[in-house]
Structures are given as structure tokens and as C-alpha cells.
Amino acid sequence: MSLLVAENIRKAFGSTLALDGASLTVEPGQVHGLIGSNGCGKSTLCKIAAGSVGADEGRLRFDGREGFFGTPAAAAAAGIAVFYQELSLIPDLDVAENIALGHEPRRRGMVDGAAIHREGARLLARFGSAGGKGLTPGALVRDLSADQRQIAEICKILARAPKLVIFDEATSSLDGDQVQIFFEIVRALREAGTGIIFISHRMDELFAICDRITVMRDGRTEATLPVAGTDREAVLTLMVGSALATRHRDEAPPRPGAPVLEVAGLSNAVLRDVSFTLHEGEILGLGGLHGQGQSAVLRAIFGADPATGSVRLGGTSQDRRSPAAAIRAGLGYVSGDRGVNGVFLDRPILENMAIASLSKSRAAVFRPRAFVERVGEIVARLNLRFAGYDFPLRTLSGGNQQKVVIARWLATGPRVLLLDDPTKGIDVEAKADLYAIIDELAAEGVAILLHSSEDEELLTTAHRVLVFGSGRIRADLAGEALTPTALYRAAYEVSAA
Amino acid sequence: MTEASAPAPEGRPPLRIRWALAFVVFAVFFAVNAWLQPSLLTARVLASNLTSFLPLVLVAIGQTYVVLAGDIDLSAGAIIALVNVSVVSLIEQAGGSGGAIALGLAAGIALGILCGLLNGLLVAVLRLQAIVTTFATSIVFGGIALWILPQAGGSVPQAYWRGYAGGLGPVKLTVILFLVALGTAILCSRMRWYRHLLAIGGNRLGAFQSGLAVTRQRVISYVLCGLFAALAALCLVGETASADPLLGPSFTLTSISAVVLGGTALAGGRGGVIGSILGALTLGLINNIVFFAKLPYVTQDLVKGLIILAALAGGILGARR
Questions:
Q1: For all residues of chain B together, what is the average pLDDT?
Q2: How far is CA A281 from the centre of its chain?
Q3: Which of A389, A463, A495, B129, by CA, is between 20 and 30 Å from B60?
């Protein structure tokens, strides 16, 4: 009998359909790989199995028990343990206490510290010296490095002796040796009859450890394949699907302009030695899996996050980077996270539009009427409609809010626009308007750096795409080489067949 | 470092003293106090000091549980006021007999628990913001206290305050109460729920995903805070032998100061009860020092404020070292 059966799961978050027709069957003693592009629903499906997210429709059976779990505690009690991508460790407890959290052994009603630490030491010993210096049962989690935290989270799962383990990106911070030890642990679990769901973006790891692979796309299960007799190309083809088979933009940039933005050796907590050149009138896309450094590059160039390395704008070196300096030098930054980055929902539309011009010009007096006259043309061009400049920004839809932010930057006459997933959460029509204006701006010579979490947007808009992985540029694709398959290949580290 | 760690021998948990720094600060002020007031080191003066610090120590213990879970209770002082006037009024109305005193004590404790339960339900179950909610309930509790007893007054029977001032043989009752509170706090810090409290304060989502009963634990911490505030109120009744609806409120921020002085992070998840007890004692010593330094009355508050600021800054800078 199968350990876990999830059938035709459907789940919507607001108006976004995260899952529709997602199915997964895991047998005891099976390592089951789960792969699919950003936002295809892998994590949501796992969270539903683990009781931390509810499902709208579908059926779940685990270990002979029919029905969805209401809470993580219920799923844990039934024998499901999850390695959460964002980790579930408590920073101010030590490693052993974290491993024992929720099922601490007791003696005479008191927590048995010695037993906790013996058990912690026993589990950590499986990683031997590969855990590195400082990974001891008594070390506080806040003092650990990223890989050591992942090891602690893995041990936390082992301590619960679960029937099913979901490893969601459990290897993302581990080095080669640590991954090998992790694989040994996974094999031991398989020997013991534990079912394992293994989510990874590293194709090599999937093929090294899994018995079967399920491919998901756009919230549904495409296929489940036995690893023996399957090759990487087959998996890749299923992931890409037919929708993206053609590239929509095939013309090259009208005329290669002069270099505007030269970035060399940019490094910080996320980035590793990022270098590239952006030309006048060029739309340069930043692609790859989520959070591989695309936003970090834009924020570092804009001076919002610290970084080492050089940024030259129009031949002038930008040494003391800050958003204020960047704005004066002719940069504009549009974020998809409007609420967090850059809008004032309760302030008037006028103020939201004028704010960047205010920090650029050093005029002591702001003259609203003159400003409105100046932006009138931009507003018309953006197809932006609102009841009045003094209405709070909150009264506009997400798409129109984003247009106000674009208008803000156009009012400063920028040379370079940094777009950080600008279409996140806005409607299709506003999206089309935004991309039309991006095209127009580029034709007028504005250089555009565009990060989008949707490959399709990059393919239809960008002249050239840099694919990011682990904070580095993995591929620079343009012209003939810029195909949907090439984007996937670079993002998932599949070498060309 | 707010905590001194020693490397663990094989298979033993490391010794982590989370209140080391708070103890150093306490020792410094104790020394200064002893220098200004040589009689401090006599058993009689020590015991009477402990008596006057006891209410704050109790509230600080209760407040610590709430703060550790990542919340805050701004109504602790108002609970003291409410319990204080309720107990005195109830004992008076019930006739002042021994039975009336027992009834008053029990009712006071129950009232404190009820107030804490209300806070806990509003904050953890209805998920209202802790600061605003407990600020609002503090006005409600304080308002009820004023309604019951518009101005200071009333009196409890002799048996109550005589008993509170008495003791077991040579040991004063207040000293025993202090030791019991200390012992209970230490015992609690080795219980499973206390560990879970730290986890919830340290990473609420992580604790939830680890299957901990987050909501229940947060409610319990508020109930404990209400309970300890009620105990503090009962001590105040013993000390003053009467009721005052305006006596409580200052305890709220003082208890939070004690918690912070004791090395507990206001963000939650870090610190402990013993530190808060030391913090409360330190605040009491600061009062003594300002008094015995023979400062003019009008400058006492200013100097006290500056010393507390210095103690806090010293603790924080020491922790950053």
C-alpha cells in the first residue's frame, strides 16, 4: 500500500491558482524527486501534505488514514516530518535543544538536559567532521553558518523517526562532502522503509539519489518517471512544456548603443563577483531560479544594499553608493514589492510621483502646479488614469500603483531603469502596458535592467538575458542562443547534451 | 556576553549562565549601597530590604514569561491595583475574620488569573497587538479599581499585616516567600513548557512548524503574569495594610525595566527569570542609593533615572563585547 497518495489537489491563494490537478504518490522506502520551475507549486503541495496549508479540493491519504491534516502538529503526530526551506530552528536555543524541540525527554517532570545532549551528539556524529568547526550539541543556532543550520535541521527530522520525510531544498547550502553524507542518511532512511520526498533544483542530485521523479508545471503534475531509463533532457522537456517553445522577441536591439552601466566584481552577502555591461537602449534581463542574486544586483547597484566591486555609470565611477546618489546619477529603481519598497499608500498620488524628482533636484521650494504640467505627458503616455493627483495612492489598483512608480522615475529623466520583478501581482492589462512602455523607453535610449520571475516575460521583452545561480552569472544568452530550453538548462545546471 | 558558556564535557549540556551580566550589575550596586549604608549587611536590614523589593520581584517574574514569549504586558500594574482594592474591600465586607482573609486571598489570586486570561485570549487567540491590547486592558482594570475604591483607604484586619510581618521562627515570612518564588522560578525554567516559551519567542513560525502549541503557551504566559501581579498585590496589602487604586500602575514599566536589566530581550526568546529577579533587586538598590546619598529631594528622580540609564547601557555594551 502506498504511504502517501495526494490526488487532484487544488489550491488558490486569493485569485492566484497555486495548484490545480497536482498528484503525488510515494511508496515506503522510496526516494521521490519533485522538480519544476519557480512557482510551479512544489512547496505548496508539500505544505498541504504536512498540514501547514489547507487544500481547496482533492484527496489525501497517508499511511492508511484518509483526509487532510489540520495543523503541522497533527501531521507530525501521524509521522510526517518536513525540512522547511526557510528552516524552523530557534536561534537562541542550542543545537541539541532544537533537535529535541517538542518531544524533550523528561526525568521527574523536568527536562532531561543530559539526555537531550546525548541524543544531539549521537545525531550530529553522523555528519562526522564534515559539519565543520563549532557544530556541537551545545552551540547556539544563532552562531552557526548556513550549512551547519541545514545539518541541524536535518538532525531535527531524524530525531522524530518519521514515516515520511519531505526535504524541501535541504541541500542548497551544503558542500560536496556534506551532500554525500546527506545522501548516505537518505539511503539509510530508505533501507528502513521511510518514504522520502526530495525537492531540489540540482538535476544531478535528483538523478543521483531518487528512485522516481515527478515533474510539475503551472500547479499540475506533468508526469512521474522512474529514474532508471530516463535522462535529463526528458525531464527538462517536461518542465519547459510546449507553451514556451518559441521565443517571441527575435529582433536584436535596433542599434547597439554605447555602454552606460559597467558593473565589475560586485560581491556581497548574496553576490559573487558579478560583472556585466549594459548599453544604451538595451533591455538586459536577469533570469534564473528565485533569489539567486537578481534582486541583490539591482539593490546593490542602486545603493540600497552594501557591496564591494565597481559600478560605473556613463564612465563615471560610483564610489559612495546610496539611493540618493544613484538617483542624482540618473538611476531609477522599481520594485515588485511595492508595499515594502518605495510607495506611500496613504499619501497623495502627486507626492508619490514627485518624491524622486525632489531628491534629484536641489530646489528649496516644490511647485506642485509646475510638476503636474511636466508629468501630464508621462501620465498620458502610461495610460494611467486616476480621479485626481491629491487622492491617496491606496485608491489605485496594483497595476496603476506600479505605473505611478514608473512615472516617478520617468519624471527624473533616468538613463538607467532597474526593474525588480515589476509586474509581480498586477493584472494582465497593466502588465502589457508596462512592457509596451519598457520597449518604448529602450527605443529612446534608456538602458533597462529587468529582473522577472517569469521566464516568458524575459523571453518576450529582453534583448539579452543573464542567468543567475548562487549569486553568480551562470550564462549570458542572446540572439539565437536565447531559447526557453537554454534558460532552463542554465538555471538547473544541466550541461548541454 | 549576556551569558557565560563553558565547553561541555562529552555528553553533558554546556553550563550557560544567562544572568551572569545581571549579577555583575547587581553586585556593583550592592557594594555601592553597602558603602553608603553600612548597616545594609545586617540580617535585619537585608530582610527589610527584601520585604520592600518583594512585590517588584514578583511582578518582574510574571512579566518575564510574557516577554520571553515575544509579547508584553502593560496591564501588570493595573492588575495589581485592581487586586489590591478588591481584596481589601472584600475582606472588609466579609467581616474581617480569619475566614474572610482566606476568602480575600483566594479571590485576589483568582482575579489576577482571570485578568491574565483575558489578556492572553485577546492577544494570542484574537491576535490583537500585545502593546495596544494590554494598554487598553490596563485602563479597563484601573478603571474598575477606581470604581470599587475611588481613593486610597480601607483597612485589613490586624491578623493580615501582623501575619505578613511575622515569620517562621527567626526567619521572616517575606524572606521565605522570596525564596519560594526563586525556587519555583528555577524549577519552572527546567520544565518543558518553559523551553517551548523560549522557542516561541525566538521564532514563532518555526515553533509552530515544529508542532508546538503556540497559542496555548502564549495564553499561559499571560495567566502567569496575572497570577504573579496578584501575588504582588497581596504582598502590598500586607505591607500597607490598606488599599490604594493608584499604587499599582508604576509597577508596569518598572517590571519591564527589571526584565530588561536582567538581560531578557524585549523581542523575546532570550533571557530568563533569574536575571529579572536580579534586575528587580538592582532597581530596589538604586532607590536605596539615591536615598542614602542624601541628595536633595527634587533631584532624586533625575539621578535615579540617570543611574538606571547607565545600568542599562552598561549591560547592553557589556553584551556586545
A1: 90
A2: 28
A3: B129
User: Which of A101, A144, A153 to substitute to test the interface with B, most B CBs within 10 Å?
Assistant: A101
Q: How many CA atoms lie within 13 A of A484 on its CB side?
A: 19
Q: SS3 of A26, please?
A: strand
Residues of A within 8 A of B203 (CB-CB) are 88-91
Residue A315 C-alpha cell reads as 564612465
State the cell numbers at B216. Answer: 496555548
Are B11 and A118 within 8 A, CB to CB?
A: yes
pLDDT per residue over A308-330, tens digit each? 999 998 888 887 788 888 888 88
- Parallel, antiparallel, or unpaired for β A283-288 and A464-469? parallel
What chain B residue is nearest to A98 in terms of C-alpha separation?
B199
Distances (CA, A) of B307 to A431, B54, B65: 59, 21, 26
Give the highest mean pLDDT range of A97-101, A332-336, B14-18.
A97-101
Cα separation, A414 vs B90, whole angstroms: 75
> Mutating which of A43, A84, A92 best tests the B interface, going by the most B Cβ atoms within 10 A?
A92
Q: E strand or H helix at B104, and its extent?
A: helix B98-120
**Residue B4 identity (one-letter amino acid):** A
What is the crossing angle of helices B43-68 and B214-240, to 10°? Answer: 150
What are the CA-CA distances from residue A9 to residues A48, A70, A377, A405, B209 (Å)? 9, 15, 48, 38, 22
Q: Do the Cβ atoms of B208 and B127 come closer than 8 Å?
A: no
Strand B171-172 to strand B167-168: parallel, antiparallel, or no bridges (unpaired)?
A: antiparallel
| Whether the predicted pLDDT of A252 surpasses 80 | no
How far apart, in whole angstroms, are the C-alpha atoms of residue B126 and residue B44?
A: 49
Q: How far is CA A209 from the centre of its chain?
A: 24
- Please, what sign has the CA dihedral across residues A68, A70, A74, A75? positive
Chain A residue with CA closest to B191: the answer is A110
The separation between CA B61 and the C-alpha centre of its own chain, rounded to angstroms, equals 4
User: Is A195 in contact with A210 (CB distance < 8 Å)?
Assistant: no
User: Which of B13, B199, B208 comes nearest A72 by C-beta?
Assistant: B208
Is residue A6 within 8 A of residue A60, CB to CB? The reply is yes
- In this predicted model, what pLDDT tens digit does every residue of B153-179 receive, in sequence order? 888 898 999 889 888 888 899 999 999
A118 close contact with B: CB closer than 8 A? yes
Of A102, A92, A91, A148, give the one whose Cα is nearest residue A124: A148
> What does the alpha-carbon distance between residue B291 and residue A6 come to, in Å, rounded to a whole number?
72
User: What length is written for chain A?
Assistant: 497
Structural element, H or E, at residue A31? strand A31-35
Instruction: Give the helix/strand (H/E) hosting A316.
Output: strand A316-317
Cβ B198–A90 below 8 Å, yes or no? Answer: yes
Return the pLDDT at A396.
82
CA distance A224 to B82: 66
Say if residues B145 and B128 touch (Cβ distance below 8 Å).
no
Are the Cβ atoms of B206 and A88 closer than 8 angstroms? yes
Angle between helices B173-188 and B43-68 (to 10 degrees): 30
ipTM for the predicted complex: 0.84
Residue B221 in grid coordinates: 504566559
Residue A255: pLDDT band (50, 70, 90) is low
Tell me the residues of chain B between 170 and 229 that have a Cβ less than 8 Å away from chain A: 187, 190-192, 195-196, 198-199, 202-203, 205-213
Using alpha carbons only, what angle is made at residue A204 by residues A198 and A206, rounded to the nearest 5 degrees?
20
Q: Considering only the beta carbons, identify the residue of A77, A89, A136 that sits closest to B203.
A: A89
Give B44-87 as a DSSP string.
HHHHHHHHHHHHHHHHHHHHHHHHHTT---TTHHHHHHHHHHHH
A21 contacts A8 by C-beta, under 8 angstroms:
yes
Q: What is the pLDDT of residue A243?
A: 52
